[in-house]
Design a protein that fits this description.
Two copies of one chain form a homodimer.
Chain A (H helix, E strand, L loop, with lengths): L1 E6 L6 H9 L4 E3 L14 H4 L6 H13 L2 E10 L2 E9 L5 E6 L5 H5 L11 E4 L2 E5 L8 H9 L4 E5 L7 H15 L2 E5 L4 E2 L2 E2 L5 E3 L5 E4 L5 E6 L2 H10 L2 H4 L16
Helix pairs in contact in A: 5-6
Chain lengths: 259, 259
């Protein structure tokens, strides 16, 4: 499966979807809160929408028009709660999965969002098992491991990563792909929002740890192949998932065991 | 605390201990199985020794002579079992901790060693809480997380990392330090043993993710400061350990949950 990653400022996805589809991509990943912007503070409640609201319907139309699956971040309203969410829409416009960020990042997130309560949300697309995470979530190896143990082949991670946290894109994301033997696609914003400067560096990393494609700081559309055969050969050589010793780490899931 | 990391071939530690002590280091970390060589196959059983055997007594003398703590890998015999172990000896020659590798690496390890059954072995030295892991162990984020949750400030990781696994030294080790907010010191072999070519790249990484010092492929003695104040400031800024949501990852410790 060919996937595209749109590193861009928040706003319209039409151009990215058209370019990705023209390039033959079957899935387009966009950044966190791409529909509204991430660092928009008090505007978040008013701009939040249900998972099947107007923004979702516009995305479904865009997906159908280009015959391409779309994964995009948006602020999701559900009753009185607002979640920092990512939705995956199939090429026929069907909503395949919706994930709510479980690890909120500092006051930027905590001031506005309710944390999600489900760590592993996955869907199948063209025979590839896809998992969803958002930004700070991927800094926790536990989240990626939980996806891998639940069968994920490809993690889609919309993000809003700012300077000086380049280490996340450059080091943590490749580590996640290798240690949990799956593909990770990571889509960041560009430019500035208020005092934040996004660092770009979107990427797609293979389970071998190889960075297949990496953006700089400017707007860019990345393309990468997700190859089931590479998943098989890499997992046969790098047996981390079967060499784990879950009986030895009981404290990892003990509540209150945070240092 | 100033620490030294000896990237070297297996063999004598006298020169490294003397140089480290002369540089003012309070602790010297040496590679996996440094007393005997790592890739020595059928020689392992005969060269294995109890944790308080002749090699340990020689190390205790060396530690006392130079007033420096020593951490070194060796094959440990205990009854009919042989473990791939690392021992930490204090500057007065006292044995402070002994850890047996829990995650065995392929046939190179499995053909000769019994796996250890205790994931977290720690000791205190000069006010720094030190944890011990060996080589393949550190590729599992769970092991480092378990140490961090148990209060580790500094992980000592003797290794025998061969080409083409540079990704472990270059990417996974820095990721571990940052995601679990502790120092990691990683000491590799140099040169060849039979068909293996060791890739060097020993390092010390700070909890900020900064690589404080990094070797090439040749023999080298690295020096780095472990600063309690940096641990405090880095953990105050990078709150991964307190932002974990242990209730969301139950499958991480479910036996048989290996993918």
């Amino acid at each position: 499966m060919l996937i595209a990653v749109s590193q861009q400022a928040a706003g319209d996805l039409t151009a990215a979807a058209a370019r990705a589809a023209a390039a033959g991509a079957q899935l387009l990943l966009c950044p966190e809160m791409v529909t509204t912007g991430y660092h928009i503070g008090a505007d978040i409640p008013a701009l939040s929408e249900p998972a099947d609201g107007p923004a979702a319907r516009a995305m479904a139309r865009l997906a159908r028009e280009h015959g391409i699956a779309l994964a995009y971040g948006y602020p999701e309203r559900d009753g009185h709660d607002v979640f920092n969410a990512v939705q995956l829409i199939g090429p026929d416009g069907t909503r395949l999965a919706n994930y709510r960020k479980t690890h909120l990042f500092g006051e930027l997130d905590r001031a506005w969002f309710t944390p999600g309560e489900r760590a592993v949300v996955q869907a199948e697309l063209h025979g590839i098992r896809i998992g969803l995470l958002i930004c700070y979530d991927v800094e926790f190896p536990e989240t990626v491991r939980a996806h891998a143990l639940a069968g994920a082949d490809l993690l889609l991670v919309p993000t809003a990563l700012m300077t000086p946290y380049e280490i996340v894109a450059d080091t943590l994301v490749p580590a996640r792909a290798y240690e949990s033997q799956l593909y990770v696609a990571y889509a960041n914003h560009t430019g500035r929002e208020r005092e934040l400067r996004y660092c770009g560096r979107s990427c797609v990393v293979a389970p071998t740890g190889q960075v297949l494609t990496r953006a700089g700081s400017a707007e860019q559309l990345l393309l990468a192949q997700i190859e089931p055969e590479l998943l098989r050969t890499s997992r046969a050589e790098n047996t981390h998932l079967t060499d784990r010793r879950p009986e030895l780490y009981p404290d990892l899931v003990r509540e209150g065991a945070t240092a």
